[in-house]
Design goal:
Elements (H helix, E strand, L loop, with lengths): L3 H101 L3 E2 L2 E2 L3 H10 L4 H12 L17 H13 L7 H23 L2 H92 L1
Antiparallel strand pairs: 1-2
């Protein structure tokens, strides 16, 4: 005969074992859920740090490009200013040479100046001191003959080249420049040029020479102002280069930080995936155990 008491005892023992297993699985489940929650917090923190680093990195990259562009502009300005300085210096030399020739070409009569209007016009237009030289020059042009010496002599000086260079400089000098002093000097150069033209028109050698002296002074002032601008351009180039290198260095450090955060994020995410798989197995085991316990009751 079967022993009912023994069966009850066995069933009771099995239920106690199942209860212990169930408690163990519930505890394991709780621990896994806590670990997953903590891991997800760490994952979110990694994402937040990565996003902050990414935003800062983009900002530094933009600033780096900005200062790189500033350096390029300063370098271009340096070259442009240097070009104008060479122009002005060359023009000063031309003015000085022409002034020397104007001074030597002053007509004298009884120890005093005798103003010859036609001669001065011929001097300004064709580089001739008098009508005879002008006629000779015109004959050369008509016959397409060059003077024996290709280099212009004292008798063949002209303001055409100087006027052409002045027109070019005034036309090409940037109107949007913030240098108030340079624009004032350009205006002054125009005024002194008017005096020179009037002196030529009126046959006044003395006023012509004085106006040319003033033009030389104005041009020399322009050279001084441009040299200051060139020095400022050098400083801007150096400052922009330092700023660019500084931002580039910081951006590189943030790029490395982003890479490290990505690596840590991948590891943390894999860890969470593993914990969730383990939790799934625990839940499955717990469900099976609960069904088995129900069948034993």
């Amino acid at each position: 005969m079967d022993n009912p008491g023994a069966d009850v005892m066995e069933t009771s023992t099995l239920l106690e074992d199942a209860d212990k297993k169930s408690k163990g699985l519930h505890l394991r489940k709780l621990v896994l859920e806590l670990e997953i929650a903590e891991a997800e917090k760490r994952l979110k923190n990694l994402e937040r740090v990565y996003l902050c680093a990414s935003e800062k990195h983009d900002e530094l990259k933009w600033l780096g490009r900005h200062f790189y562009s500033e350096e390029i502009r300063a370098r271009s300005c340096f070259s442009y200013i240097g070009y104008h300085i060479d122009q002005f210096k060359h023009l000063v030399e031309e003015f000085q040479n022409t002034l020397d020739k104007v001074t030597k070409a002053r007509p004298k009569q009884n120890g005093t100046e005798a103003i010859h209007h036609h001669s001065l016009h011929a001097f300004a237009l064709h580089g001739c001191k008098n009508l005879a030289q002008e006629n000779k020059q015109l004959q050369r042009k008509a016959q397409h003959q060059k003077p024996e010496n290709d280099e212009p002599s004292q008798e063949e000086i002209s303001f055409e080249y100087i006027n052409r260079e002045l027109n070019y400089i005034q036309r090409t000098f940037p109107r949007g420049s913030g240098k108030h002093s340079m624009h004032e000097l350009l205006k002054e150069a125009k005024e002194t040029r008017k005096l020179r033209d009037n002196a030529i028109a009126n046959g006044r050698h003395d006023i012509l020479a004085k106006s040319m002296e003033n033009e030389i002074k104005v041009l020399e002032k322009m050279v001084g102002e441009l040299q200051k601008d060139r020095t400022e351009s050098v400083h801007r180039m150096q400052e922009s280069r330092r700023a660019y290198e500084d931002f580039a260095k910081k951006a590189k450090a943030l790029e490395e930080k982003k890479e490290r955060q990505c690596g840590r994020w991948d590891e943390e995410n894999k860890h969470i995936i593993g914990l969730k798989k383990t939790l799934g197995r625990v839940v499955t085991s717990l469900t099976r155990l609960e069904r088995k316990n129900m069948n034993m009751l």
